[in-house]
Amino acid sequence: MSISRQNLSVVIVSFMSDEVIHDCIKSIPKDINIIVVDNSGNQNFKSKIEKNYKNAKCILSLENLGMGAGNNLGLKNCDTDYALILNPDVILENNTIDELIIASNKIDSFGIIAPLINSDTNLNYKLIDKKINIDLNNPFKVRSVDGFAMLLNVKKLNQIDSFKNFKFFDENIFLYLENDDLCKRLIQNNENIFIVPKSKINHLGAKAVSFKFSDSIELSRNWHWIWSKFYFNKKHSNYLSALIYGFPSFFSAILKYIFYLITLNSKRRAVYLHRALGYLNAAIGKKSYYRPNIKI
User: Hey, is 56 helix, strand or coil?
Assistant: First the structure.
């Protein structure tokens, strides 16, 4: 079965995203159902979303689930065979969905297809082979795609043993690399991942959370980026590889922490302390427990 607007849902995981999510939702065709999973548990936010957008349903999580578990929760509440995962700071173009639908009819089999980011400097995919010549008029296979915009073949993925019951994203990962982990597991199961170059999106980048919480979010990002890299490498390689691969970042963070301690720059000192702590907590096997210190 190919993709249609009636057989497609959009899943958006939000956290203090009120400043950007409206532009995202407005860019989605009104005949496509939207599931918003709000990790801040804000009842006013839920009321505003469901009042202003008749095609949107907002689910309030009981706790801050992060991206992986948040996306899984949204997918469980979809009744369609396909779901487009979006970050709140992504804006679709007029033909984004249509081009994905057209491309799906040209592809024999896929686990994920994704639009192409509108950027001259950033790519939202990793090639299987860097020597491959890309045809920007047709879908092309990739090794992985970034998680801020990816369309999942939900029905097909649910037929794979390790993905059944909507365990698509590894819920041990709170933030970062949950998309790489999903893509790697799909490739291991001989599923295809495609970029659709004629389908374009705009990504604001690191703007999904309100700017007024930027200091707290910066600490969280630094903690989880290092933790997730360690966990990912341990999961897909081994503990020693994760330890060695992450050590230069840990050592650099310690040196910078000492420098900013001496120069009395408390803000930068806190950033590198959290980066170092992310590595240490992953190394001793602790879960990704850190949460940004934000109150509604």
Answer: strand
Residue with tokens 């998309």: 179
pLDDT digits (tens, 9 = 90+) for 120-167: 888 999 998 877 788 888 999 999 999 999 999 999 999 998 888 888
Q: Any idea which residue has 């007024």 for tokens?
A: 212
Q: List the domain boundaries for the chain.
A: 5-203, 211-283
* Alpha carbon distances (Å) from 222 to 42, 148, 272, 276: 25, 18, 8, 9
Question: pLDDT tens digits for 31-51?
Answer: 999 999 999 999 999 999 999
User: How many other C-beta atoms are found inside a 10 Å radius of the C-beta of residue 287?
Assistant: 11
**pLDDT tens, 197-219?**
999 999 998 778 888 888 999 99
For the entire predicted model, the pTM comes to 0.94
In this predicted structure, the answer to whether residue 257 has a pLDDT above a threshold of 70 is yes
- Bridge partners for 90 per DSSP: 203
244: nearest Cα among 231, 257, 230, 256: 230
CA–CA distances in Å: residue 280 to residues 200, 245, 274, 277, 290 = 39, 13, 10, 5, 13
When the candidates are 3.40.50.10750, 3.40.30.10, 3.90.550.10, 1.10.240.10, the CATH number that belongs to 5-203 is 3.90.550.10
Whether the CB-CB separation of 181 and 189 falls below 8 Å is answered with: no
